[in-house]
Amino acid sequence: MRSFIAASMGLLSAVGIALAAGPFDGTWHGTVEGSSGRCPQGAVAMQITDTEIVGRFSIGGAQVPFRGTVTPDGAVTVAYDYPAHGASGKMTGKISGSDFTGSFNSLYQTTSSSCSRNVAAKRD
Length: 124
Description:
Elements: H1 2-19, E1 26-34, E2 42-49, E3 52-59, E4 62-70, E5 75-82, E6 87-96, E7 99-108, E8 113-123
Antiparallel strand pairs: 1-2, 1-8, 2-3, 3-4, 4-5, 5-6, 6-7, 7-8
């Protein structure tokens, strides 16, 4: 009987840990604004679960997927590779409460050019 109770308690603990939400979990939406006239504006959508971020940038008609991480203090780092447009880059920033602010930098290999954009998002 003791082993059954101990096993049940262990299972309940494991389930409780699996169900615990991270402090930044949720769906986030926001804007991407070019810091110069040649960088197109757009939108960002991301889903945060624990420390993992999965999302997409909607820029100039393209849907650009990305993946990354968020640390316990809210530091965000994501990367993307979009070979269809010869582009790659990263977004870095910080979450504070239900607000994210950061920068999104792209490198276009085919034209040897780059773009820097500002990103702002809020948790839904």
